[in-house]
Amino acid sequence: MKNEHYSIQYTKSNIFREITYNKKVVGFVTLDPVIMEDNIKYTLTEAYIIPEYRGHNLLYELIEEHQNIAEIIFSIKSPNTSLMKVLLKNNLATNISDTIIFSTVHLDTEIGNIYTNKNLKKLYKIKINTEFNEGIVTSHYYTLETDSILFNDTEKIVAKHEDIPFISTPRSDDIRENKLRPKLKKLKQEDLTAMMFNAIANYEKVEEFMKE
Q: Which whole number is the average pLDDT over 44-61?
């Protein structure tokens, strides 16, 4: 993990589960279950597999295990690009444009993890990272421009006005590996709007994918 600069972002998850292959521990996941009115939501918060064992669909098997139970809603919190590749490989997500991925798996982030900078903070009615850090927002879109979940704040959860898009803060390993920091610092509202327009403009591809 240190050699790959993998950083654990969520240290307070309720379930720690080993990933095994041929009776050997080759990785781990952490999960947070939440009991809801009609079902249980399981959120994958961290996932790591030793590099030489990553071609065996071990993460997909875990996701499929939860997806196949009717009473369970499965989600991934702030996924990195590696996890999105797992979803793409196993037909749980699809590229609807060069930079936008649609996922059938719920993609979550905490409100306190919404990305902000000096250009974007004026769009929000709360101080990001200081208020409501435990509130969760969910999307099905992921942008490869910033390796982030992409949302449209139609209910004005954090935005001052309707339909202002926002993104989650990328995982630290993606920021470092993909050299995202300069791009993130320069992001403006028009950049986020263009990302969301790209997603909406390709919604027909979402419909086609869901019919398959």
A: 92
